[in-house]
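README: folding subset

This subset contains proteins for which both the sequence and a predicted structure token string are available. Records are stored as plain text. Below is the entry for beta-N-acetylhexosaminidase (507 residues), shown exactly as it appears on disk.
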Amino acid sequence: MLRLDTHLDPEAYRVTVERHGVRIDGGGPAGVFWGAQTFRQLLGPAAFRRAPVEPGRAWSVPMVAIEDAPRFAWRGLMLDVARHFMPKDGVLRYLDLLAAHKLNVLHLHLTDDQGWRIEIKRYPKLTETGSWRARTKFGHRASPLWDERPHGGHYTQDDIREIVAYAARLHISVVPEIDIPGHSQAAIAAYPFLGNTDVVDTAALTVWDTWGVNPNVLAPTEDVLRFYEGVFEEVLDLFPADPAQAANGAPGAPSNAPRASRTPFSGFVHIGGDECVKDQWRRSPAARARLRELGLADEDELQSWFIRHFDRWLADRGRRLIGWDEILEGGLAPGAAVSSWRGYAGGITAARAGHDVVMCPEQQVYLDHRQDGGPDEPMPIGYVRTLQDVYRFEPVPPQLTEEEARHVLGAQANVWTEVMENQARVDYQTFPRLAAFAEVAWSRLPAPEERDMADFERRMGAHYRRLDALGVDYRPPAGPLPWQRRPAPEGMTGGLGRPIEGSPPNV
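--- output ---
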């Protein structure tokens, strides 16, 4: 029996298994859905397969009473489909995996220097030109290896509508990211006037084929603002603030899935705002003149002008801007929320100023970083982040007061795909660490140093069998399987767990 209990919080649930029946109560439709995920866990790993492997099997579950509720409202995964494109079916599969772990936000990183992945009908060259690169750096940017095959792809507008509608059926918000003003070479390659044409031959630019921080940034002109307003107009249509109506009629959604309600963060739009190299603005006479015209003190304030413009533009349409913590530079837009990735400092600053924060520090929850320092691990990027490191992640910094801590919406693990050229590599980097992150984001755990890692690893023994049933190509606890190994070229290992000199921050 499924039913609503308004005495519970919207995402809270109660599962009661008695001798003659099962009852799942939820404070809202999402709570009922999360309770159903817990009940599926009680049924055992076979319940995670798409079809029964033992026809006619009698299912049994222990008699229990479980009442639970999430600690954080925002429990997210950032999936970078710009660096390496993930086809639509792969994204839908990851939505299923998020739902199985009671995660409720998919932050979809759709544009970057290496590719533009979303169809914008009024600007067709964004995908005709911007979604394909001629070749790809293989591994870390310091690697001597290249994949000489063209790489690319994009989602049609109907693909995006399907993804958003299916996510809403699973009570997951999809937050799109369209990068401005940096990480924009793919867009500039498609429409050269977007770049700083007085200091760069933007017509000669192509979609970038390597990794790191790119110097090509958008020009601070009215034409660029109008262009991106056009982009965002179509984005808002594709990512509605209330996707429930579309979701309730979505093709391909499971017939037994609960009818969707408004997902809590569907009104957010991520604008990037990170790693904006300002050298071109400093050299550009046009940018310098623009800075003086606007009465701005420096290039940091010019970046803030970009962010503030779109904060107001989105707010006028009932939406909310969120960006990486560099949007603090030059003054934070009044309504903006912050994704704190460069450690905790940006999140602390934002929360103290009264802005909402999603904690996703690189040092704890960047899942593209290596899981172990052994020589059989895939080509290194960043530092070692073990399963234990992720399990000991604490989203709320102790420096915050109780009032300030209320601005921490939650936490997010980030999967940047420079070194992940296919689904198997994404699985390997993401799991099992995403399971540890999911427990941190949902549960009220003890202080990091008091968390029982031995108990978590014991429970993971059962969860690995669920991941097997789901077809997840995770990293086994004993180390990579033979087909998962991809050692770095000689001289590039950076030692056991130490990054290569100049390891990029990945965002």
